[in-house]
Structures are given as structure tokens and as C-alpha cells.
Specification:
heterodimer; A: alpha/beta; six-stranded mixed beta sheet; four-stranded antiparallel beta sheet; 9 helices; B: mainly alpha; MetI-like fold; flat; binds adenosine-5'-diphosphate; binds magnesium ion
Chain lengths: 259, 277
């Protein structure tokens, strides 16, 4: 029987997932501390989305378990919000209708005060009636974050949310996520293929191996927040970046350079 | 860049960013007016030119009557044509309604099970490609000379057309969008109505439009064969009596019906499916 670590919000225990003959992830075990941000990096196709969908209850595991506050997750959970790869807005609904979609599905009266506050906070006020195709990629992703946050989940799972955005927009969005995190005190699991993004945002960075994905390294990120440009340009961040790169590319020369 | 993404604590006055919607719309508006003027002008020239040419070369009425004679016949005969128009509309709407409903339901059900779809698709294709008009004599033998054989023929012509297009729409599943709905605990029915159906809607509308036009063709054809009543029957009657202005007056009514159907679905599409373009 899988046992959760004391104080952990999420515990992943020996998680494995097969699609037919294809083993996507294998024996993944880690914890996510309460109100922390954990990033997962890894080569594309290594099973990051597979892992996140298992954590959100969207699909089951072949082996192992995901525990939320010690309870096994067996299906979509109201405490868990998921931000999808790409914004995943419904193109036939305007921005506000997209944000209200979860409430509609749940047949609940939306908390408009909270939603308006969120829309304002992410700078989408005045765009409520715009269709997704009229919005930039960054605005679409902000709308999708508001959609996920509107239900006040205490755990937010984000699947390469800014992968399709340009570098500038991405940095702004990272700051946005940090501010949201400071305000809402959610537990965030953040998947990315940008090491810089992972280090900027997280308390911990997990590195997954290539398929089947396993946890091959687990780095604490001890730098004080908010992480300034100076911090991000520091020797320590540079070294950590190189170690993560070395893990991913398996380049021992880089690792030697970093140490 | 910075302006586009406001800081959290700075308030953003609404509508600060000019997405070019308004100016674009204004541009299209003026252009449309000019376009309408040109379209009307061309129509006047074509119809007027036809009138002048037909009279100039003294083309006999039984070959092609001048537009003025057709218009006069349309006005004169319209009260007499009205019951036939009603008959045609009854056949068309009943047949289309039945065919389209069955086609839509079949498409929605069949696309849920890829194997069932594979089994069923060849038959639908045969129904789509076979001119249902060919069946009318048979249907008349079985169902007599009333509305029934015509309605069946229209349903058989429209239904498969709707079905095959709607199926294309329903097949466009987007697993991320379905996962989105599921992550909020959506039921199978909610996923259907809130994700699959809206996603299929543009293709459904295309199917309905083509189905309606095919239905009209089949309806008129069946009336020509079936005799007794309906605009198609008027066509055979007038041509056998060489009443060409009246004949073309009926043709006019039929083409207006076709255009109305087309415009109707075009407008519905513009309202409900414009997100796709
Ligand atoms: N539904 C599925 N059916 C079969 N194979 C899948 C499915 N989803 C993902 N895969 C495969 O599993 C592997 C991991 O995919 P994914 O979790 O999306 O990786 P990542 O998000 O790290 O890029 C890939 O090889 C992918 O092709
Ligand atoms: Mg992925």
C-alpha cells in the first residue's frame, strides 16, 4: 500500500503507464510539497503529459498511484485544476464563455466577483466578448489560466503552458504565474522544456529521462524570490542550468564543466 | 511588448488595444454597398440586354421568351401556381426534415464506433451517388401518386448527403478539448452537446445546405414523373402545351427557392459557424 509522505500535497508512487506496448512512464515516484512550485523538465515524448494527466485523474495508471493529501486519485478532482498544452480554448465561445465553461459543465452558479477579479488581474478586462481567434497566443493562455483558476483549485497542474509563446511574452507569463501563486497559495506542478523557466519559477526541478520517463534527478532551487535578472544571471543559476542540461543530453563534458 | 501584458497591479482601461475589428467592418460596409450597386447594374444590363436581343432577332417565344413576357406570366399565373408551390414545399420540407434528422442521428451515433462506421459507410456512399430520382417510378408503384413517394425520394436524396457531411464533422474529435470537458467532470452527453456538436456544426451546415438543394432537385424531378400536382408537374404541363413564358415563370420560382435555401444556410453558418474561418 502506497503511503504519502508527511506534509506532501501530492504523492506519486511507482507510477507507470503503458499505451498498448508502449511504456510511456515507468516507476515514477516523487512528492510535491504543500504550496510549492515543482517543475518537471524532460525531452519531448518522455511522458510528461502522460504523467500530468494521471495526476489530474484524466486517465488511470498501469502501475502505482497518485495520492492527494493521502487519498488515491481515481478521476477528475475538484481540488485539481489543469492548464493544457496550448491554450485549448473552445473556438466557438468568446473569452468569457470559455472561462465560464467549467461552471456550465458543473451546473454551478459562477463566482463572478472572483472571475472578474482574475480577468482584471491577468489584464484581460475589456476583452470578455472577443473570440479566441481575435486574441494573441499570450492572451489565450491567460484566459485558459483564468478558466482553471476560476474554480479555486488548490492544486494547479500546468502542461507546457507557454511552450508556443515568444520569449518576451513567456517571461511576462512566468512572472504572472509567480504572482498568482503568491496570491492564491496553490500547489503548482509545472511542465516545461525551458530550463530557465523551470529555475525561475520553481522550488524544485525534476528531470525525467527519455521514454520511458523516470525521475533521473531532483534539484532544489534555493534562490530567494522574486528571482531578479541578477539572480537569473548568477553563477549558481548557470551551474544548475548546466547540470540539468547535462542530465537531459547526457553530456558528461558539460557536467564536468559545471562542477 | 510590455504594454500588451499589463502588470498585475496596474489597471488596464478597457478597449485600449485596437484589434482591427471596427475599422475592418467599416471597410467591408462601404465596399459592400459599391458591390451591391455593381451587381444590380450587371443584372439590369443582362436582363435588359436579353430582352432587347430576343426582340431584335425576333426569337420565337417557344425557344426563349423575353424576360418581360416571363415576368408577366409570373404575375398572371402566380395565383394558379400557389397551390403547386405549396405542394412542392410540403414535399421538400417533409422529405428534407425526415432525411436530415435520420442523417444527423445516424452520423452522431455511427461516428462513436469506428467499426460500425466502416460497415455502414459503403451503403451511405451508394445512397449518395445513386440519383434517387431513378427510384421514383418504383416508389409510385408501391405508394401511389400522393405525397408519399415524393417525400421518400426527397428524404433518400437529402439524408445521406447530410449524414456523410455531418459524419465528417463528428469525426473531427479533438482529444484535448474532450479532455478539457472531462477534467471538469463532464458527462458523455455534455461532451456531445458542448464539444462534439459545436465542433461538427460547420460541416453539418454544409451537409444541410447540399442536402436541401439535392432535396429540391429530387422533389421537382419526382413531381415531373409523378404528375398531378407540384411545380415539377407544372413544368411538364406547360412545356407540353408550349406555354413557354409560364414554363420559365415556374423555373424562376424554383431558382428563387434554391437561392433562398442557399442564403438561409449561409446566414445560419455566418451566425453559428463563423469561428472556423
Ligand atoms: N493516447 C495515447 N495513445 C498512445 N500513445 C500515446 C498516447 N499519448 C501519448 N502517447 C505516447 O506516449 C509517449 C509520451 O507522450 P507524452 O506524455 O505526450 O510526452 P511529452 O508530454 O513528454 O511530450 C509518446 O511517445 C506518445 O507518442
Ligand atoms: Mg506533452
Amino acid at each position: 500500500m502506497a503511503v504519502a509522505t508527511e506534509g506532501a500535497r501530492l504523492s506519486i508512487r511507482g507510477a507507470g503507464k503503458r499505451y498498448g506496448d508502449l511504456q510511456a512512464i515507468a516507476d515514477v515516484t516523487f512528492d510535491v510539497g504543500r504550496n510549492t512550485i515543482l517543475s518537471i523538465v524532460g525531452p519531448s515524448g518522455c511522458g510528461k503529459t502522460t504523467l500530468l494527466w494521471s495526476m489530474s485523474g484524466l486517465h488511470g495508471l498501469s502501475e502505482g498511484q497518485v495520492l492527494l493529501d493521502g487519498q488515491a486519485i481515481t478521476g477528475p478532482h475538484p481540488e485539481i485544476g489543469l492548464v493544457f498544452q496550448e491554450a485549448n480554448l473552445l473556438p466557438w465561445r468568446n473569452l468569457m464563455q470559455n472561462i465560464l465553461f467549467p461552471w456550465e459543465v458543473k451546473r454551478q452558479k459562477p463566482d463572478m466577483a472572483w472571475i472578474d477579479h482574475l480577468v482584471d488581474r491577468v489584464g484581460l478586462k475589456g476583452f470578455e466578448t472577443r473570440m479566441p481567434r481575435e486574441l494573441s497566443g499570450g492572451m489565450q493562455q491567460r484566459a485558459s489560466i483564468v478558466r482553471a483558476l476560476s474554480l479555486r483549485p488548490s492544486v494547479l497542474l500546468m502542461d507546457e503552458p507557454f511552450g508556443a509563446l515568444d520569449a518576451f511574452t513567456r517571461e511576462e507569463m512566468n512572472r504572472l504565474v509567480e504572482e498568482i501563486w503568491l496570491e492564491t497559495k496553490t500547489t503548482i506542478v509545472f511542465i516545461t522544456h525551458s530550463i530557465e523557466e523551470a529555475i525561475f519559477l520553481s522550488d524544485r526541478v525534476l528531470v525525467l529521462s527519455k521514454r520511458p520517463g523516470r525521475v533521473m534527478a531532483d534539484y532544489p532551487v534555493p534562490f530567494p524570490r522574486p528571482r531578479s535578472l541578477e539572480t537569473m544571471a548568477s553563477r549558481e543559476v548557470f551551474d544548475l542550468t548546466n547540470r540539468i542540461k547535462a542530465d537531459i543530453y547526457g553530456q558528461t563534458s558539460l557536467r564536468a564543466a559545471a562542477e | 511588448m510590455r504594454d500588451a501584458i499589463p502588470e498585475f497591479n496596474k489597471s488596464q482601461p478597457g478597449g485600449g488595444v485596437g484589434l482591427s475589428g471596427v475599422s475592418l467592418a467599416a471597410g467591408t460596409g462601404t465596399r459592400t454597398r459599391k458591390e451591391i450597386a455593381i451587381i444590380l447594374l450587371v443584372a439590369v444590363v443582362v436582363i435588359g440586354g436579353l430582352e432587347v436581343l430576343l426582340r431584335w432577332f425576333e426569337v420565337p417565344h417557344y425557344i426563349l421568351p423575353p424576360p418581360s413576357a416571363i415576368a408577366a406570366a409570373l404575375v398572371k399565373e402566380f395565383p394558379l401556381l400557389l397551390p403547386h408551390l405549396r405542394d412542392t414545399l410540403i414535399c421538400l420540407f417533409a422529405g428534407f426534415g425526415i432525411g436530415a434528422s435520420i442523417g444527423l442521428i445516424l452520423a452522431a451515433v455511427v461516428t462513436q464506433k469506428p467499426f460500425v462506421e466502416k460497415v455502414i459507410t459503403p451503403y451511405i456512399l451508394i445512397l449518395v451517388t445513386t440519383p434517387m430520382l431513378a427510384l421514383v417510378p418504383l416508389l409510385i408503384l408501391r405508394f401511389g401518386f400522393g405525397y408519399t413517394p415524393r417525400i421518400i425520394a426527397v428524404a433518400l436524396a437529402a439524408g445521406p448527403m447530410v449524414m456523410i457531411n455531418a459524419a465528417t464533422g463528428f469525426r473531427r474529435t479533438d482529444s484535448a478539448k474532450i479532455a478539457l470537458a472531462r477534467s471538469y467532470g463532464a458527462s458523455v452527453l455534455q461532451i456531445f452537446w458542448k464539444i462534439r456538436a459545436p465542433m461538427a456544426l460547420p460541416m453539418i451546415l454544409v451537409g444541410l445546405m447540399i442536402g436541401a438543394i439535392f432535396g429540391l432537385l429530387t422533389c421537382v424531378g419526382a413531381e415531373m414523373v409523378g404528375g398531378g400536382f407540384g411545380l415539377g408537374n407544372r413544368l411538364t404541363t406547360y412545356s407540353s402545351m408550349i406555354n413557354m413564358p409560364e414554363f420559365f415563370a415556374v423555373i424562376m420560382i424554383l431558382s428563387i427557392m434554391g437561392i433562398v435555401l442557399y442564403v438561409l444556410f449561409f446566414l445560419i453558418g455566418k451566425k453559428w459557424a463563423s469561428w472556423e474561418t
